[in-house]
Amino acid sequence: MTEYSSKHGTVSRPREQLYMAFTDMRFFRDMLPEDKKSYLEADYDTLRVTVQGFTIEVKVVGREPYSRIELANGAGAPFAFNIILHFNEGPDASKTDFQIVVEADLNFVMKTMLGPKIKEGLDKIVDGLVDVSEGRVPEGMPADVRWPEA
Question: What is the pTM of this model?
Fold first, then answer.
C-alpha cells in the first residue's frame, strides 16, 4: 500500500471534542449543506456515499480514545484503503494538532493519476476543518457550512 499524509493543522477545538465529533460517522453528514445530504447515508460506524450511481462504503475499524480513529473501505470501493485520523495535543488544551494518513492499494496507473490529487485533497480537508473551527467558510464551500453544535 502507498501512504499519503496530509499536512498538520491546528484545529480550534479541544482534542476530546474533535475526536468525539469524528467518532460518529453521522458528523460528516451534519457538516454538509442540506442540498448535498441526499448523496450520503451514515450511521455510527459506517458512511455510504453515492456518486453517479456508484455507492462506496467506509467503515470505522478502530478507535483509540482521543488520539486516533481508523477507517477502511467497505462495499463498492474500487481499491483497498485505510484512513487514519490523528488527534494530537495542540499548542494548548483548547486546540488539536490534526492530521490524516491514507494508505491505498493503487495500481501504477491509478497511483500516477491519483497520487498527487490524494495529497492535495487531504490538505484541503485539513485546511477546511481548521477554517470551520475558527468560524470561517472554507474556500469553495457553501456559506452555510458550520461546525455542528454539540
Answer: 0.86
Question: CA 134 to CA 127: how far, in whole Å?
Answer: 11
Domain boundaries, the chain: 2-133
Residues in the chain: 150
Per DSSP, the residues of 9-32 read EEESS-HHHHHHHHHSTHHHHHHS
Q: From first to last of the 150 residues of the chain, give the pLDDT tens digit.
A: 899 999 999 999 999 999 998 999 988 887 777 777 788 899 999 999 888 788 889 999 999 999 999 999 988 888 899 999 999 999 999 999 999 999 999 999 989 888 889 999 999 999 988 988 888 877 766 666 555 554
Going from the C-alpha of 93 to that of each of 35, 71, 114, 128, 133, the distances in angstroms are 35, 26, 36, 21, 15
CATH class of segment(s) 2-133: alpha beta
**Three cell numbers, residue 69:** 480513529
Helix (H, G, I), strand (E, B) or coil at 83: strand
CA 122, 128, 131, 132: dihedral to nearest 10 degrees?
-130
The burial class, CB within 10 Å (0-12 / 13-18 / 19+), for 117 is exposed
